[in-house]
Amino acid sequence: MISELPEQLWSLTNLQSLDLSNNKVSDISGSIGNLTKLKSLNLWSNSIEQLPEELWQLTKLQTLELGRNSLSNLPPEIGNLTQLQRLDLGENVLYELPEEIGNLTKLQYLDLQHNYLSSLPPQIAQLTQLQTLSLSNNRIAELPDELWTLAKLESLSLDNNGIKEISEDIGNLIKLQTLHLGWNKFSELPRQLWNLPNLANLNLASTGLTDLPADIGNLTTLKILNLYSNDIVSLPTTIGNLTQLRDLDISSNDLTALPAEIGELARLENLILWSNQLESLPSELGQLSNLESLDVWNNNLTSVPEELGNLTQIQHMDLGNNELDKLPQAILDLGDVVEY
Does 245 fall in a domain? Predict the structure, then answer.
C-alpha cells in the first residue's frame, strides 16, 4: 500500500484517469492542480482528512471517488466541478453539505452513506439528472420537499436515519426501481408508495409496520421485498399479485399464518420466515417450483404439508426449533437439504 505519493506524479499533465484507491494516502499535494485534463480521480479508501483547494479547479472531472476517507468538510468550491457525473463521498465524517452542491447539475450518482448528515440543502432540487442517491446511515430526521422533485431517480437509499415520515410526493418518482427505507420508524407510509410503477427492490426492514395494506399488490414489478423485524401479524391476499418476486424476507414478525395466495409467487427463490409465530404452512407452498431456500426456523409448527416435497429445486430448508415430531416422507426424501 502507498502512503506517500511521488512529486513526479503531478507532472503527468496528460493524465485523464488516476486511481489511487485502497491505499494509505493521507496527503494530496496542491500540485494535483497541474492535472488539468483529469476526468476521473479515485481516492476511495485512504486516510485523507483534507483536500487541497487546487483539486476543486479540475473542472474536467466527471468522476470523483472520495469514499471511505476521513473528510469532515466539503468546501463550497465543490460547486466548480460542474462536469461531475459521479460523486462518492460515502463513509466519511461529513456533518453538512454546502448549498453549492446544487451546481453539479450533470450529477447522475451521489453516494453520501455513512456520514453524519442531519439535513439536505434545498439546492438538491437542482440535481435534475440524478439517478442514484444513497443517504443510508446518516442522522437525517426530515427530508426536504425538494427531494421528491428528482424525477429521474432510479435508486434511493435512506436506511438507518431518524426519518419518521415519507411525503406523498414520493409518487412523483415514477422511475424508482430501488427504495430502501429500513431501520427508520414510520407511523404510516403514504399510499403513493404502493403505486410506484417500476419498483423492483423495496426494503422496509425494522420500520415499525404492524400490517401491510392490500395495495402492496400493486407493486407487480417487485423482485426483492424485505420486511424483516416488524410487527406484522398477517399478509394480505394481494401478496399473490407479486408474481415477479424472487426474494421475500418476513423474518422476525408476528405472523401466525400465511395466505394460500403465497403459492402464486411462481418465481420466488428465497422465502425467509424465521422467528414468527406460524402454527401451520399452506400446502400451496408446494407450488413454488423455483424455490431454492425456505427458512421457517423458530416458529410454532406442529406439522408441515407433504407438498413441500414437491420443491425439487430446494437447496436449503430449515424447519428447526419448531414442535415437529416427524416429517412427511416426501420431505425426508429431499435429503440433506432439510434441517429440523
Answer: yes
Q: Tens digit of pLDDT for each residue in 263-314?
A: 999 999 999 999 999 999 999 999 999 999 999 999 999 999 999 999 999 9
Per-residue pLDDT for 187 more than 90? no
Would you say residue 318 lies in a domain?
yes
Mean per-residue pLDDT over the chain, rounded: 97
Host H or E run for residue 41: strand 40-42
Cell of 143: 427530508
Cell of 178: 430501488
| Residues β-bridged to residue 179 | 156, 202
Q: How far apart are CA 91 and CA 108, in angstroms?
A: 19
Distance from C-alpha of 238 to C-alpha of 216, rounded to nearest angstrom: 7
Rounded CA-CA distance 327/319 in Å is 10
Picking from 191, 126, 123, 189, the residue whose alpha carbon sits closest to that of residue 158 is 189
Number of domains present in the structure of the chain = 1
* Pairing between β-strand 63-65 and β-strand 270-272 as defined by DSSP bridges: unpaired
CA–CA separation, 140 vs 113, rounded Å? 11
Residue 219 in domain: yes
Residue 57, Cβ density class (10 Å: 0-12 exposed, 13-18 middle, ≥19 buried): middle
Domain presence at residue 2 = no
Residue 331 cell numbers, joined: 420431505
Give the domain CATH number at 108: 3.80.10.10
pLDDT at 253 over 90: yes
Q: Please provide the DSSP assignment of 232-293 as one string.
A: -----GGGGG-TT--EEE--SS--S---GGGGG-TT--EEE--SS------GGGGG-TT--E
Name the grid cell of 82: 460542474
Q: Alpha carbon of 64 to those of 34, 41, 56, 238: distances in Å?
A: 17, 5, 11, 44
b/e per residue 8-45 (b: at least 16 CB within 10 A): eebeeeebeebebeebebeebeeebbbbeebbbbbbbb
CA distances from 36 to 32, 74, 78, 100, 160 (A): 8, 21, 16, 21, 39
